[in-house]
Amino acid sequence: MSTGFFDGIAPVRYAGPESTDPLSFRHYDPEARVMGRRLEDHLRFAVAYWHSFAWEGNDPFGGPTFVRPWHPQDEMGRARMKADVAFEMFALLGQPFFCFHDADVRPETGDYAGNLAGLDEITDYFGPKMEETGTGLLWGTANLFTHRRFMSGAATNPDPDVFAFAAATVKGCMDATHKLGGQNYVLWGGREGYETLLNTDLEQELDHLARFLHMVVDYKHKIGFQGTILIEPKPQEPTKHQYDYDVATTAGFLRKHGLESEVKINIECGHAVLAGHSFEHEIALAVAEGMFGSIDMNRNDYQSGWDTDQFPNNVPEVALAYYHILKGGGFGTGGTNFDAKLRRQSIDPQDLVAAHVGAMDVCARALKAAAAMLEDGGLEQALRERYAGWSRPEAQAMLQGDLAAIQKRVLDEGIAPEPRSGRQEILEAYVNRFV
Length: 435
Ligand code: XUL
Ligand code: CO
What we know:
By secondary structure, this protein is an alpha/beta fold. 46% of the residues lie in helices and 11% in strands. The chain folds into two domains: 344 residues, Divalent-metal-dependent TIM barrel enzymes (TIM Barrel, Alpha-Beta Barrel), CATH 3.20.20; 41 residues, no CATH class. It has an eight-stranded parallel barrel, surrounded by five helices.
């Protein structure tokens, strides 16, 4: 029986680029073929439970604005109603996946056993709904940052009892993810970082973080979880300094601790920007490191310096992100998770559906542009020309040689390099033809 929350909203259909209905897809036709693959299989969309159903609209100055029938979220009856509504929206959107934290889906009971029982009960409730709506789990994760017990971190907490509580919580969430056939398990270091070095043993905390991660990997193998373990970097917020700062930091950390073949990276657009990078930089670097896993799609406000988690609406930017994803071979177990929330004035149920429809259209349009650029090959051709000198045998031999041999060659041959144009504006105009 329907909850009635989305009354009057029909399942969203592809209606073509001319459609003016905000509740129709203009660019996302799941069945359309791009580079020989269905668009749905390229993009692998997921809805994030936390922003869409658990967040109540609070900001630092104001209380809840959404006031949904399942608020306050303090007992199992309302957790089930929230699940009913969530799966009703999944059925309307038809996206293939969702993602959740334990704390999004069950009430906080204040103790470990109570929380675990709630998670077990609600994930049993999800099972048939996933079946019925055809919605899979892209990833599960543990919320190790909201409750005050985690105020000084989880795996990096100075108190070993918090480390224990966090480890036990992650075990429970991995079990739940495995039970629901999740394709990945994510660790975002919610408060794994510090507020001040004055009270922080940075070296010890990083060692504990690595040990924790090894336990996660060991447990994955123990239970036969086939999904990918993903780390989601973020440079700051909530702590002043987050240990998983960006892709470069995370890749170095994984290699130092022998985890590079076991763990991949989930890259969020807004986090990349907070770290002073572009989304495509973080993706390209993860691909180069062999650690690209999945993306959290969103955008930050350009003027504010924090994580605003808005829905994406900039096709040229998103196209460059998908360009690097496609060039790297596309998603494996990963996908496009909308880690994005409504603005707190957008209180209508229709706003929630329309936000996802608009975002899915932005991504579809961007992916098609990225595929067209890749098929046209203009950027790849420009790269080949720019690096062509390196295919000469003497250039390759130089990489096997030493400084003295190179000096001899420079002197003998009178090597005097002539600068060549980087052609940036021409390439930017080239991209503009596709987006
Ligand atoms: C926080 C964030 C999280 C993770 C999952 O900035 O992105 O929602 O994606 O814990
Ligand atoms: Co995220």
